[in-house]
Amino acid sequence: MIATTSFSNYESEVRYITAVSGNTFTLDEPLHYRHISEVPTYGDYEMPMQGEVALLTRNIVYRGETETSKDGQYGAHIMIHSPGDESSIGKIEYVELTDVGQAFKLGRYPLHYHMIGTVHNSYVRGNSIYHTYNRAVTIHGVHYFRILKNVAFDTMGHTFFVEDAAETKNYLNGNIAIQVKASMSLLNTD
To answer: What is the pLDDT of residue 19?
Structure first.
């Protein structure tokens, strides 16, 4: 996936790499849009401006029903829940999640950690989450949770969502959200 470098949210493009030779790679088809890569200098300060490139594929794929998910905006979802005593541990890493989340359904997010409390042993790391119908990763009533190095593309609503703002000591780092679309399914801010 090559992120847009314009003001249009819809100029991000998905391509397949068909060959690699040294530092050169070949795509399955040409890009339709211009993607800049510049490092202008302002006095002594360099300001790199490049479009992000992210890998969407993973060896393990978790997906909604390919034929019907898009039409009904009703995909697969994973919810980790416990009585708040860290009796549930969810370690999800390097998984490709696509056609996930359920529009207009409260709590039906692609990855949802719900009311677990302190979660020193749980995390979401290195996943690709795309073509979602209701956010990407939601944490609600969760503390000490780690969301690291995930790629989210073509998502509806808040992508990495902290639900109540009462959640503490969570660590979100190295994630990327590209082509986030408005969703009127839950909150006005989505």
So the answer is: 96
